[in-house]
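Q: What would this chain look like folded?
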Amino acid sequence: MKIVFMGTPEFALPCLENLYNEYEVCAVFTKPDKRNMRNGQVRYSPIKEYALQKGIEVLQPENIKTDEIYEKLKEINPDLIVVVAYGKIIPKKIIDLPKYGIINVHASLLPKYRGAAPIQYAIMNGDKTSGVTIMYIEEGLDTGDMILKKEVDIEETDNFETLHDKLKIVGAETLLEAIKTIENGTSKREKQDDSKSSLVKPIKKEATMIRWGDTKEDIYNHVRALDPFPTAFTFFNGKRYKIYGVEKIKTEIGGNIGEVVDLIKNKGPLIKVKNGNTIENILKQYEYHLIFNMPIIDLAYRKEDIIYLKIEEGEQYIKDKQNPYYDMLIDKIFILKKESKDEYVMYKKL
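A: My prediction, written as structure tokens:
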């Protein structure tokens, strides 16, 4: 069977690897290269890198709806086109081209969570299960007939990254199963129940902000659904800080919503929320340390696994063994050799 593959991110890579090992992958479509904003270097998608390693033809059209692309696909004459997180809408004339049509690997149990962010929304909504659906592509967004579905449990400790990694493996395995049924003529097409569908749009930056007035369960799910990307955030003293993890606690401490009511050793600030308290695990990502009840001015700079925090009156805090961060100190206090005599303190990543 001749297959054309269309995909872009890491999620699609296990699917391409499985297809390459089992079938003739005659071409790969992936989104155009991006340029790194910091160093100006061109970045290839994981799909392009793999295809180049294997000698597969790579096509990166800005617009897949052109006559040129259609004629190219007619020339290749694939039996099947497989789409996995390609990032472009496939026009009908291409959908009708292959012998067996076009199938897609979608990271949800359709018809739930049609659209661009099914993994994040499954975690954010506190779902206990997620999964993958192998489906035929039609003109509507994720509305095509389903071929196979596989469930995956969402653990309490799962975040976007861990669930993403589980689903990409299950998706690749289920894809091969679905293609086998297409090959031998046993494939079944199941219509989606549109009345049970939900559409999830890409998550905008403003939607990632933590709302401390929510319940601790909702905040916990919100943060882990966005960890490590696009990342939840909060403001403190007018500055924006990324938050990579929170912890729910059973004991409730009084205070106002959003107030830091305590500082937990080796963890972080304890924050009052709607139905209790959460601990903001600031030590998970040392580059975003927040120490609310100490006079930290700013993050000075980072070097390897050490952070350097600018402080106002560090000595009276740092030399006090009652300081909850005392055990983490590499050195008590030192003066950075600059024109100014600002005091800094070093903390080491756990």
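The first strand starts at residue 2 and ends at 7.
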